Design the sequence.
């Protein structure tokens, strides 16, 4: 299994090409390339040209760090057809960047809208019809996270939706911080997913459903909002023995291709200390 660093907490202190060295300094052998304005930004066309991709590849080589996965977030399930068609173009460039980096894993979100779920599902499968031949030709794993405020938030429904694509190249991401939006315990989802689950994000969160739903209060009551956090292990309510035990049970921890990414966003002011803590705690739990 590959243990990777999400460099998002270092965006404000380091430049893009410094991320591999930062990961190496903190003890990580792998890096996950998450959205960045100089690389593949949220929802827009990738900004990395071939020269920058070569520089990133060299920076990784110089630091002894590999890129475990590339994470674009693009509106490929958006119910707006113009946005969806644009996302397909952006996806094709993101795939080419990933291939040029020598990376075999991409992870993403469904990126639709919960209030337009049927339209979003139609858009998702329409996009997959166009992208799947490219994904399969390049031999990539594309793994999808049922993110809060998406047209698929439920863990088991995410598995059903991915199965509908009918391709071994498409799989599931389990983000621990999204546990309390997925409606089932981690072990239930992990057992159902099996080999479909090939990437996880490790960060904690509070259970927003506790205290009769009054742990977090938004005004006016009934706002259509989703609340979660990306805290370090132990600062929230995720059942970590169940989480790691489930991954062990389904063979995730023993699979050399699976990716476990530390993704704590809540403590930028202590980004290095937090990253070191996360790595040590992950190794301890394993």
Sequence:
């Amino acid at each position: 299994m590959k243990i990777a660093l999400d460099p998002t907490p270092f965006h404000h202190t380091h430049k893009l090409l410094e991320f591999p060295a930062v990961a190496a300094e903190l003890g990580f052998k792998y890096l996950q390339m998450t959205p960045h304005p100089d690389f593949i930004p949220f929802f827009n066309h990738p900004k990395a040209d071939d020269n920058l991709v070569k520089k990133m590849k060299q920076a990784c080589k110089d630091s002894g760090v590999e890129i475990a996965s590339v994470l674009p977030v693009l509106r490929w399930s958006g119910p707006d057809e113009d946005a969806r068609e644009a996302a397909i173009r952006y996806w094709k460039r993101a795939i080419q960047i990933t291939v040029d980096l020598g990376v075999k894993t991409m992870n993403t979100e469904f990126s639709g809208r919960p209030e337009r779920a049927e339209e979003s599902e139609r858009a998702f499968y329409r996009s997959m019809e166009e992208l799947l031949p490219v994904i399969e030709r390049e031999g990539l794993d594309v793994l999808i996270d049922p993110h809060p405020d998406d047209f698929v938030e439920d863990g088991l429904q995410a598995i059903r939706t991915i199965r509908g694509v009918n391709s071994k190249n498409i799989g599931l991401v389990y983000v621990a911080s999204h546990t309390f939006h997925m409606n089932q315990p981690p072990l239930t989802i992990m057992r159902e997913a099996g080999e479909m689950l090939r990437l996880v994000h490790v960060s904690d969160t509070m259970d927003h459903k506790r205290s009769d739903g009054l742990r977090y209060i938004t005004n006016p009551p009934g706002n259509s909002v989703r609340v979660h956090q990306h805290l370090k292990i132990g600062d929230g309510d995720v059942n970590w023995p169940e989480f790691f035990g489930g991954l062990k049970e389904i063979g995730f921890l023993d699979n050399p291709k699976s990716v476990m990414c530390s993704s704590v966003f809540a403590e930028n002011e202590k980004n290095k200390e937090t990253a070191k803590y996360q790595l040590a705690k992950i190794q301890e739990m394993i």
